[in-house]
Design a protein that fits this description.
By secondary structure, the protein is mostly helical. The protein contains 15 helices and no strands. It folds into two domains: 55 residues; 215 residues, MetI-like (MetI-like fold), CATH 1.10.3720.10. 74% of the residues lie in helices and 0% in strands. α13 packs antiparallel against α14. The chain is globular, with a radius of gyration of 24 Å. It starts with a helix and ends with a helix. One of its GO terms (cellular component) is plasma membrane.
Length: 277
């Protein structure tokens, strides 16, 4: 029989978890509810009141109006896709070299490169901006993606540690069969590394989809505006129309929510692996 003390302890845990869930999900639910209201209802009723009736006018205005919010979604999707593909590809190559290729100064070079994790991203904004200006890439798509395409210290560190955990016997067997480094990477290392690759893909997608500072600095005007900058612009352009701003916030959240629902196991694994490493 369960003791009263254990029951109270379990109940207290559930109360804390419920409160945490409300605090976490509350802003998102409020965003959706506000986006489905008309400006008149939002101005006249409590902010927690349910939409009556549910209206998609704000979403229609965003996607078909002159603000080019639909274009911002496409730019963000293209930017995220390019960065994920190239960053993962170059990170795999670098991590394999650090993990499986013996060359002079390998450990020193790895730790020097890894020191980039100690540098705050904000410190790199001005040097990167000056480089992009010199290359003529300001306010271009390649100016958005180029600084993030060639791997990242975080991804290379995780991949290197994962690659080093793959049994050496498998690599030796491939070498005996005549496989070189490229064949070993493609046929042995990458297929065995699907969990960590899925993890890094999800982390990169979320971080790039939510990227704000660099797109704000490197782009001007609506041509290459990403969804975070477009949402911030709406707050100044439609200062009193919070229903439109909340509809934009909801549209920005939908792809990430769908991604989470589709890859819940990988998301949990990403938290486990990144926390452990």
């Amino acid at each position: 029989m369960t003791s009263p003390k254990r029951i109270l302890s379990t109940l207290g845990v559930y109360v804390i978890l419920l409160a945490a869930a409300i605090l976490t999900l509350g802003p998102f639910l409020l965003s959706v509810m506000t986006g489905l209201k008309s400006p008149a209802q939002f101005a006249s009723e409590d902010s927690l009141a349910l939409p009556r009736p549910f209206s998609l006018e704000n979403f229609t205005t965003l996607l078909t109006g002159p603000g080019q919010f639909g274009s911002a979604i496409l730019v963000t999707l293209a930017m995220t896709s390019v960065i994920v593909i190239f960053q993962l590809g170059f990170s795999v190559l670098a991590a394999y070299a650090f993990a499986r290729i013996d060359f002079a100064g390998r450990r020193v070079l790895f730790w020097v490169y890894l020191a980039g994790l100690m540098v705050p991203n904000i410190v790199l904004v001005i040097p990167l901006y000056l480089m992009m200006v010199e290359l003529g890439l300001r306010n271009t798509f390649w100016g958005l993606v180029l600084p993030f395409m060639f791997g990242s210290p975080y991804a290379i560190f995780l991949l290197r540690e994962y690659f080093r955990g793959i049994p050496q016997d498998l690599v030796d067997a491939a070498r005996i069969d005549g496989a070189g480094h490229w064949r070993t990477l493609v046929s042995i290392i990458v297929p065995l590394s699907k969990p960590i690759l899925a993890t890094l893909s999800l982390i990169t997608i979320v971080s790039q989809w939510n990227s704000f500072l660099w797109p704000l600095v490197i782009t001007t005007g609506p041509d290459w505006r990403v969804i975070t900058v477009a949402t911030a612009t709406l707050q100044s352009q439609y200062n009193g129309n919070w229903t439109l701003v909340m509809a934009a916030t909801t549209l920005a959240l939908v792809p990430l929510v769908v991604l989470f629902l589709a890859f819940q196991k990988q998301v949990v694994r990403s938290i486990t692996i990144s926390g452990f490493k």
